[in-house]
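Q: Structure for this?
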Amino acid sequence: MDVYASGPLLELNKAIPSFDESGLPPVPFSMKLMPGECMVVEARDIGHSTMFADLCSGLVPLDGGAVRFMGLDWADLGDRELNALRGRIGRVTHRASWPEFVPIHLAIVLQQLHHTTRQIDDLVQDAANLAERFGLPGLPTESPSFLPEDDLLRASCVRAFLGQPHLLLLEDPVEGGPAELSNSFLAAITEARDRGAGVIWLVRNNAVWQEYRQGITATWRLADDGLVAVRMG
Amino acid sequence: MSEENSQSTQSSAPPTDTTRDPVLAGQAEGGRVFAPIQWAFGKVGWIGRLTRRQARFLLIMLGASWGVIFESFRAHSWRRTVRYEFISTMNSIIRGGLVATMFAGVLTGVAAVSQVIYWLGLTGLATMTGSILINIVVREIAPILVGVLLLGRNGMLSTTELGLLSIGGEIRSMQAVGIDPFLLLVLPRTLAFTVAGFTLGILFSFASLVTGYVMSRMSGVINNPVWVFLDDVATAMSGTDYIIIPLKFITVGFVVGLGGCLTGLTATNEDSLRTLLPRGFSRGMLIVMVVSVLFSLDL
């Protein structure tokens, strides 16, 4: 992964999300995420977490302001550029994301197969290594409906971290997930940050990230009046 | 007694409100005076909404048709994920539909071709056999039956799969990581249907003609060898037929595939399989018939 070092990796500059399209409060959102930083965003509502991640990915239309990723305003880009840029984002989402007719192993490497020209053997090897790190016995090959919920969470992590993405939008897989996932998840975050990736970790309660407290750069709360900075006392 | 009181209170409440509120009173008065005009506006609005709703899918189809053709000529569109989807869908349609198509062709041969040959033989018009077979079986019946088979076997499957992905949110999740569902799903599937439509259409025609010949030979109506029969058929084809017939198979496959994918992709949260499948089937049938009729018009 070539490290992006020419300013904020992600910047929300008084971005007002369309309420009709997202359900997010139509107030200005402002924040900056530098390469290598990890930001926690607390949101009680899972739907709001997902929509905030969509906002960062340029999927939510804006009534004002701008959202920039790697210095590029999502609103200025054509479809091809948008999709290419989104290919550099790794996501763990609470929204349904496993197509039933695609086997899990293919769904895991799908983003990389689509956006890169890396050899499929290399991708599968990387995915298998990540799968073992996240506690899976190997790369699962079943249909998503045959996989237990915990293993689907692990597979979500594998998919998000595969291909060394520049930005990680992680809707918390730790809370409610298997206990042993926490360590490997935090280790993967640290490793990603070390190579210059930015991380936004969306959590429902602040107990989840306390274990990683020293590594958190900033904490925000997603409230009715927008993004509110939380003091890390 | 108390019910009567409450009824009288309810019935008397609106006039009291409107007389107290000048805006409501004005609206109520206006509503009484201009009721026929409002009724007419309402009806015109209803016709407009109906027209827009019906035209919407047609416009989406036209736009998406151009999109598929345009994107299919761009090298960047043919990523390995798109190639994989194209090949797997094409294999699924052709391999899965081969037996059903050949069987339908044989049945058509038995029912239609042998009858045509028999009656033409009786009326002394046996020399027109090839021409009539081409015009009826290959040009008219084959595209419709192949279209229906494609729709039933694979078109509805695409509608269901893409519809469930749209309703469930998986399509949005794909978009979030830069995977364009049009490029990944609609483009390769539509082109796979196109190739399959041509392949199965030709196989269907061949099966029906050969079966018709066998049936007629067995019943003693014709005594020519099979290659003479096929030569008659080929001779009866005009130059235009060599373009129109394959074009019809290709177009039927294209529109069935595209229609199925778009019906699924345009599903909303209010949709379910109960609404999606009938809509997909009726649209598919309509599309097949429209294409068939358009190609049959002698413009």
